[in-house]
Amino acid sequence: MYPPEFDYYRPGDVSEAIDLLSGGGRVLSGGQSLLTELKARQTDPGRLIDVGRLESLSGIDAGSEGVRIGATTTYAECVDSAGVREAIPVFAAAAEHVGDPQVRNRGTVGGNLAQADPEGDLPPAALAADATVHVAGPDGERTIPADDLFEGENRTALESEELVTELVLPAHDAGGYARRIHPASGYAMVSAAVVFDVESEAVAGARVAAGGAVERPIRLAGVEKTIEGTPVADLAGNGFPTEIGNALDRAGDEVDDELPYGDRHASASHRRELLPAYVERAIENAIDGTGSAEGGESR
Ligand SMILES: Cc1cc2nc3c(=O)[nH]c(=O)nc-3n(C[C@H](O)[C@H](O)[C@H](O)COP(=O)(O)OP(=O)(O)OC[C@H]3O[C@@H](n4cnc5c(N)ncnc54)[C@H](O)[C@@H]3O)c2cc1C
């Protein structure tokens, strides 16, 4: 398939990119979603503004308080970063699962969040990690908390003339990610991201997010509430305390209140049924420090 014709622009800096965007068109970053859409003729933007090589938007700045990740930083760079793995393990674990090595070498953090694919790996991880997205547009700069960024399938709070510039994530003590791989696409049919801090050997400030089973990633408030205050030792294998098991069983109910997501490969109800098992695995991965796990056939 050939894409429709388009004018191609490669701005030299962010302000030029914003000026170009004001004239219409779409941002091109890693191209791992947009080029597919163009070739499938699902979109015809007429103009592509390629920010993929803007050095000011690339790079990782990791410290003990947290991590700043430039929008055009690739998944592979996140996975390879010791600072990302240590300070925000949930994000490293999610990035590690994206696509295949080619996709991880080209696809970018900003592109993944802007794409807001219901089966994308970074949206639930960003939500669980309490990320803040920095954005530049014709009216200046603003920040969007991950809690407010995702609005539905491929829909975000970004305006069409805005550019994601970077992502800022506070450090967490423990983070885990788990997903059920989609047998046809390799995307996450169901995913769960878990982040918490530890105080006095008990869980403090848990954030638990689910993806794949919903049009946009959501926080699982019931699970979060039940985990908080639990001694870490009670989550370290040999089954969870009964009240946490019950909260996991009810995770699907929290999806029902939102926008359940399914496709011809896996219905919304099937994904809902799978969710508790993957939330459980994500919690276990956070506790044992392995960060991640994947179920299903690998491709
Ligand atoms: C074979 C294959 C397998 C894949 N598997 C997975 C997977 O398992 N998990 C997963 O999460 N993803 C997967 N993907 C998608 C991949 O992660 C894409 O990289 C991602 O969805 C988009 O990032 P990108 O940098 O490639 O963005 P692009 O494709 O360049 O852009 C995607 C969208 O985001 C917008 N955009 C890009 N950058 C910005 C920015 N800085 N500011 C504002 N808007 C911006 C574009 O205008 C476009 O609408 C897969 C892709 C392929 C081809």
TrEMBL record:
Q: List the molecular function annotations (GO) for this entry.
A: oxidoreductase activity
* The FAD-binding PCMH-type domain, residue ranges: 1-174
A Pfam family hit? FAD_binding_5
Which keywords describe this protein according to UniProt?
A: FAD, Flavoprotein, Oxidoreductase
The name of this protein is FAD binding domain-containing protein
